[in-house]
């Protein structure tokens, strides 16, 4: 997933949280679950667990973000077909 999303007010998403996968996103409930982060190792971005237990969390998504993600999902499905 490569859509740029913007979390709602007060819901900062750090740079390492770009590791969201579609299985981490629940568009029906409007949430994204942060279960991994990306770290640069040997010139590549690799998924790894969050640095602290507090870093793993469920993030509420606003309506605009949900709509953008749905549109992105639809585009990816169309491209894959």
Shape: flat
- Tell me what portion of residues adopts beta-strand conformation: 15-25%
Secondary-structure-derived class: alpha+beta
Order of helices and strands: EEEEEH
Number of domains: 1
Rg of Cα set = 13 Å
Largest sheet: 3 strands, antiparallel
Briefly summarize what is shown:
The chain is of the alpha+beta class and 81 residues long. The chain has one helix spanning 63-80, and strands at 25-26, 31-34, 37-41, 44-48, 57-60.
Protein described:
With 81 residues, the chain is an alpha+beta fold. The protein has one domain (15-80). The chain is 22% helix and 25% strand. It has one helix at 63-80; strands spanning 25-26, 31-34, 37-41, 44-48, 57-60. A 3-stranded antiparallel beta sheet has the order 1-2-5, with no helix packed on it. The chain has a two-stranded antiparallel ribbon with strand order 3-4. Strand 1 (25-26) and strand 2 (31-34) form a beta hairpin. It is flat. The two termini are 16 Å apart. The model is unreliable at 7-12 (pLDDT under 50).
Secondary structure topology:
Layout: E1 25-26, E2 31-34, E3 37-41, E4 44-48, E5 57-60, H1 63-80
Antiparallel strand pairs: 1-2, 2-5, 3-4
Protein traits:
81 residues, alpha+beta, 3-stranded antiparallel β-sheet, flat
């Amino acid at each position: 997933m490569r859509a740029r999303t913007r979390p709602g007010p007060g819901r900062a998403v750090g740079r390492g949280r770009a590791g969201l996968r579609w299985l981490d996103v629940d568009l029906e409930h409007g949430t994204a679950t942060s279960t991994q982060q990306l770290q640069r190792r040997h010139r590549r971005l690799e998924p790894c667990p969050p640095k602290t237990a507090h870093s793993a969390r469920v993030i509420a998504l606003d309506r605009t973000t949900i709509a953008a993600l749905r549109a992105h999902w639809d585009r990816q499905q169309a491209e894959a077909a």
